[in-house]
Amino acid sequence: MRKRKQDPETCNERCISCTRRFGCKKRVLLGYERLAFGSTTDAFRLLMSEAELDVSLLDLYNVSEIKKPKDGAMELKFFDRLKALEYLAESSADTGEAGSLYDALNRCAANIGGESTDEN
C-alpha cells in the first residue's frame, strides 16, 4: 500500500491512512454528499435511450441496482437520498456545524419575518 499523496477529494486509490480509518472520513462524507445531491441525468438517459450506450461513460453513482427482465424493460433503483442527508446531518452535528447552520437559518427567517433577534 502507498502512503497518502493526494487530497481525499481527488484520491481514487486506497492508501495506508484510508485503510486504517476504514476509508477517510472526508471521502465518506463526499460520497454521501454525492448520493444526496448528485445528478441522476445519466441514469435517466440510460433508461430512456433506445440505442446502446457506453455505460462506462455514464455517471451512475446514485444507482444501487439495475434490472433488465426478459420482457426488455429496465428497472433502476436509486440509493435513498434522505438517508444520505440524515447521515450528513448526524455527521455535522458531531462537529457542531449543524447547530450553527440551524441558528443562522433561524436568524435569517426571523429577519425576513420582521422579528428581531438578540444574536445579530
Quick tags:
single chain; two-stranded antiparallel sheet; mainly alpha; 48% helix; 120 residues
Can you characterise this structure?
This protein has a two-stranded antiparallel ribbon. Residues 1-5 have low confidence and may be disordered. With 120 residues, the protein is mainly alpha-helical. Helix content is 48%, strand content 8%. The protein has helices at residues 16-20, 25-37, 41-48, 81-95, 97-112, and strands at residues 63-67, 75-78. The radius of gyration is 20 Å and the shape is elongated. The chain has three domains: 1-37, no CATH class; 38-79, no CATH class; 80-120, no CATH class.
Helix count equals: 5
Helix/strand-derived category reads mainly alpha
Q: Using DSSP, what is the number of strands?
A: 2
Strand order of the largest sheet: 1-2
Q: Biggest β-sheet, characterized? A: 2 strands, antiparallel
Query: What share of the residues lie within helices?
Result: 40-55%
Radius of gyration based on Cα positions: 20 Å
Query: N-to-C terminal Cα separation, in Å?
Result: 51 Å
List the domain count as a whole number.
Answer: 3
Secondary-structure element order, N to C: HHHEEHH
Low-confidence blocks of residues: 1-5
| Multimeric status of the protein | single chain
What coarse outline follows from CA principal-axis ratios?
A: elongated
Mean pLDDT over the full residue set: 76
Beta content comes to: 5-15%
